[in-house]
Amino acid sequence: MKKKLSLTQKIFIGIGLGIVAGLGIQATPGGFIRDELLLHGIIRFLGTGFIRSIQMLVVPLVFISLINGSASMGDIKKLGRIGGKTVGFFLGTTMFALILALGVGLVINPGVGLDLSNVVTAEPVIGEATGIVDTFLNMIPTNPMSALAHGQMLPIIIFAILIGVSMSMLGEKVEPLRTLVKNLDEVMMKLVDLSMKLAPIGVFGLITTTFATTGFDAIIPLIKYMGAIFLALALHAFVVYGGLLKVMTGLKLKPFFKQFGSMAAVPFSTASSNATLPVTINKMEEMGIDSNIAAFTLPLGATVNMDGTAIKQGIACIFIAQIYGIELGMSALLTIVLTATLASIGTAGVPGVGLITLTMVLTSVGLPVEGVGIIMGIDRLLDMARTTVNVMGDCVVTTIVAKSEGGLDLDKYYRSDKPAKAVNAKSKALG
User: Who has the most CB within 10 Å: 27, 174, 299, 308?
Assistant: First the structure.
């Protein structure tokens, strides 16, 4: 029996076929069949139809997943000091990751050299006239239903978080509602899965259009885009996380990075923070982290901490703005930071959802969501790398919080620096 192709393999096939088809169309003389029937007919339907299937999910997915994530935090009073520290560190590092990503993107300029401004179907509205104070005021919805209907993402995010926190504070009184939200969240995840099954066809249509319009001009910008993300991820992992761990705990870094390295293949291969949770909890306990702290902070991190994803979103916004010839001002950059940071709360730690949240961030500043299709083909490899950084952040913050609360066994931590087997049998089974 032949082994079925994975979604990633199918997407790469779609990319290859799209490149070939696009270059073939570009070399073909113009006419009704080439322009109207193929390029602006069948191929446009495949690409645009897929983008619309993603757009369809953005508002309900973000709204429901944020309520579910906020409501799952438990009794607010019981979160206390540990919860405050953990959430504060997660949101702080996510915001810093976005600022780092925007900085790297503006220095490398990955989208320069590829001009797709001629295919923008509508003039994007960035809203540069909005000041910083008004940007924060606009986060408070005067009419939540209107915000949902018009896809105004920042007000939707704030409203969803407030509902989730209120549900968490009410506890058992709203357990039926909590169960309903969890079930709805599962339904949305299934819809994401179904939508992603269309990705190879959608990517084929989008890549065909890109190469039919630009030829080989798209390759170098995509390589620069990937390089910018890998650079930002490396800086965040080793400079930001390493520095934060050293400054906040005074611990030697070698034991931490050695132990994390022994299980990094799990988040890298699964591209899922949630799927990695059993392994990370087990590894943190082996490193001397109190089991109660690890059991609280790591699942919370899988929901709230999305630094790697934030880096991808920041650079992707710069890339997409540049290829469509759109200048992002300070107000737009601030909106990107706020939207992506808030969106990290409750975003499911599963493959593919990052593309949905990227669509949301693009919508918040009026950038063309069609740009998602251009980077989708290489997103799986990037997804694996950024998930690894996400999980590293969970482990770093867990170690910092445990050390500050007296929940770190230093003997176990430094004992973990001794030669050991790569991953124990339990971790292998779970991975």
Answer: 308
Phi, psi of 408 (to 5 degrees): -120, 120
Query: Which of 328, 297, 315 lies closest to 233 in space, CA to CA?
Result: 315
Report the alpha-carbon distance of residue 117 to residue 120 in Å, rounded: 6
CA distances from 244 to 148, 168, 250, 253, 387 (A): 38, 30, 10, 10, 19
Lowest mean pLDDT among 5-9, 270-274, 398-402: 270-274
Cα–Cα distance measured from residue 296 to residue 428, given in angstroms and rounded to the nearest whole number: 23
Q: What is the mean pLDDT of residues 90-108?
A: 90
410, 288 Cβ separation under 8 angstroms? yes
Query: How would residue 115 be classed by pLDDT, with cut points 50, 70 and 90?
Result: low
Confidence of residue 377 (pLDDT cuts 50, 70, 90): low
- Looking at the predicted structure, is the pLDDT value of residue 119 above 50? no
- Both tokens of residue 39? 């390029």
Q: What is the DSSP string of 226-246?
A: HHHHHHHHHIIIIIIIHHHHH
Q: Using the CB atoms, write b or e for 165-190: b if 16+ within 10 Å.
A: eebbeeeeebeeebeebeebbeebbe
For 117-121, 235-239, 299-303, 387-391, which range has the lowest pLDDT when averaged over its residues?
117-121
CA pair distance 365, 239, nearest whole angstrom: 30
Percent of the chain at pLDDT exceeding 70: 78
- Could you tell me which of 342, 362, 340, 349 has the C-alpha nearest to residue 390? 349
- Averaged confidence pLDDT in the chain: 78
Helix H or strand E segment including 186: helix 175-197
Task: From 24, 19, 52, 54, select the one nearest 38 (Cα to Cα).
Answer: 24
- Residue 325 backbone phi and psi in degrees, to 5: 65, 35
Nearest C-alpha neighbor of 245 from the set 126, 394, 373, 122: 394
Q: What's the rounded Cα separation, in Å, for the pair 428 and 97?
A: 31
Q: With beta carbons less than 8 A apart as the criterion, state whether 305 and 90 touch.
A: yes
Whole-structure pTM value: 0.66
Inter-helix orientation angle 307-323/219-234, to 10°: 150
